[in-house]
Amino acid sequence: xxxxxxxxxxxxxxxxxxxxxxxxxxxxxxxxxxxxxxxxxxxxxxxxxxxxxxxxxxxxxxxxxxxxxxxxxxxxxxxxxxxxxxxxxxxxxxxxxxxxxxxxxxxxxxxxxxxxx
Amino acid sequence: xxxxxxxxxxxxxxxxxxxxxxxxxxxxxxxxxxxxxxxxxxxxxxxxxxxxxxxxxxxxxxxxxxxxxxxxxxxxxxxxxxxxxxxxxxxxxxxxxxxxxxxxxxxxxxxxxxxxxxxxxxxxxxxxxxxxxxxxxxxxxxxxxxxxxxxxxxxxxxxxxxxxxxxxxxxxxxxxxxxxxxxxxxxxxxxxxxxxxxxxxxxxxxxxxx
Lengths: 117, 210
Known about the structure:
The complex is a heterodimer. By secondary structure, chain A is mostly beta strands.
């Protein structure tokens, strides 16, 4: 499978911060409307990361006006302007699908204290 | 149609000019050695004969060894002939030369021919996309059956060509009009949009369409 990794190598992005599942992030996404380009920000919790190499993607969930909204972004998409981490979350799962049905307190995520020497 | 012999490497995805994800199949195209040419005067038809994957003498049958010797060519595992279609000319391809992935250019269209994945003896639901029956409402013992295959007294036989269960796949399959997204000359790879027949490492023929 080595050859397959060569193929997309020039498109792989390395400019992302080290984000984890459970983190609250702001995704700055470029949107083209005709000839105009603008940036839309999508803020939410990363509930899953999947795939490897160029096919890697992550899902961001937010609750907008009481309605859960999830968006899947290909991690190496050139349309992502930047990714900002707003808050580090402390979670014990790789996939946070339980947030979809969690209500009230259960839907909260503890903040991860980063170790500073 | 003229073209090259190659191998399917596998599928992956890349981003197109608009940043949209595009599914692509990576094919290792060539290098193919031009062993000889068939001409209308000599053979009654026009074609270019290509060899792919050099092998040792033990792997090649005696008659084929004689053929390679006659044309002063190395020994190859695979030999295929490509006939030029109406507007293609084979005169610029030299005998003894090697064709590589740079024979193709990005944004051109190709037909890819290969052997599809074998499915063994498959039932009608898989093989002919029959709907089968309901899982409940009184259906018993025939959830994936094909139903009736004909009538009784008239015609009192089964018509030819009625779709039934049987061997599926592992058949020569062509996919026409696939767009070449990218050509990687350095690694001898071409990328086409979409899927092509067969499993990974399977032999495929890539035909130029224009």
